Amino acid sequence: MSLAMKTLPVVACALALAGCSNPFGKEGYFRDKSGDYTQARVTRSLEIPEQMNAEPMVDSLSIPPISADHSQLESDFDVPRPDQRLTQEEGGVYTIERAGNEEWLLVGHSPSEVWPKVLAFLEENNIPARSRNDKQGVLETEWTDLGKDPEKGYVSRAFSKLIGAEVTGPVEDRFQFEVRQGVKPNSSEVRLKIKSRAVPEESQRITTEPDWNNFAERSQKMGDSILNELLLFMVRDGSEESVSYLAQDLNLDNLAIMEQDGAGNPLLRMDQLSYARSWSAVDAALQQAGVDVTDKNRSAGIFYLQVDPEGVIKKEKESGGWFSGWFGGDEKKETPKDILLMRVSELNGVVRVSVEKDANTSAPAEISRKLLNLVKENLK
Asked: Within a domain: residue 164?
């Protein structure tokens, strides 16, 4: 076949395509319609003669009328301050975290590093401490009238935002700072409680102590502002590193307590931890301990653990090199393993961890105790 005959079909196809123009252009068969809405026009609804019996025509995307009455705000809306989140070059993260009504400052450093900075923050603002426990990471201040002394530094800025917040007249406040070990390793949580009362007169004697956060609105606003100022202080003070050796014991394992239920089955009680934090802490502890977790269901609060009948809990380490599967070596028989359930449950505000064979049967006490102790030892 000659070269001319071979090229003839190609030429014919080229001419045919040229005659059809571009099938994907504005006039093509497969044109892009994504911009058609910009040329849409409002037209009258379709009019149907009265003598015809037809369903009424309605818009496919009708806008319903607003039924609720508009309520006028009592005062100008105050835009809340955005959450602070700062990251240093060294990797330290400072952020304000919230869960429901709880709020805390999350710091990417250990409690032994964060505790001295909290003390320095109070010292710089001339707020004296009433009691202090370095091992538990708890400090309570004396009653302080922030409005009396405008030279309180960072804290005075927090006080200036409380005008009209629930109380009037001179008010003094007492603060409780608590530094906890965070859920993740090498992290800390700083929590703040506030109680307020009217400044007593010189001749007045106060015998009753108010509860923490007794003025909810004032405590929430002041706590939010002070934690933000503490965050900025820690970032600014990051170059001056110091460590508290007494605060090195502020780990989560101090908040986990072994106990038994009414039937004598071992339990692990998580003190002062919410369900979300307890779940994350147990998850991290199981990974740290090397427990074989085949599956987990956070909604049901269950970890599925693989344990052999002899009580071996941790994963088996792979042995042999890359060639071990090719040359020599006898094949090891796989030992049948049981599946146990580790359940994280909350009842009356208390979170407990238990081990079960199934939903109706508890696991053997020895294996349960071994697993729960392993979790407790790896809570950091």
From this structure: yes
Segments forming the whole domain that contains residue 256: 252-315+336-377
Give the number of other Cβ atoms within 10 Å of residue 219's Cβ. Answer: 21
Is residue 39 within 8 Å of residue 51, measured between CB atoms? no
User: What is the per-residue pLDDT across 126-177, written as a single tens digit (0 to 9) for each?
Assistant: 889 999 988 888 999 999 887 665 555 455 555 555 544 455 567 888 999 9
pTM of the entire predicted model: 0.52
Query: What Cα–Cα distance (Å) separates residue 27 from each residue in 23, 32, 35, 326?
Result: 8, 10, 14, 64
Burial 124-152 (b: 16+ CB within 10 A, else e): ebebeeeeeebeebbbbbebbebbeeeeb
Please check whether residues 220 and 89 belong to one and the same domain: yes
Residue 254: exposure state from Cβ atoms within 10 A (0-12, 13-18, ≥19): middle
Which residue in 250, 191, 190 sits closest to 380, CA to CA?
Answer: 250
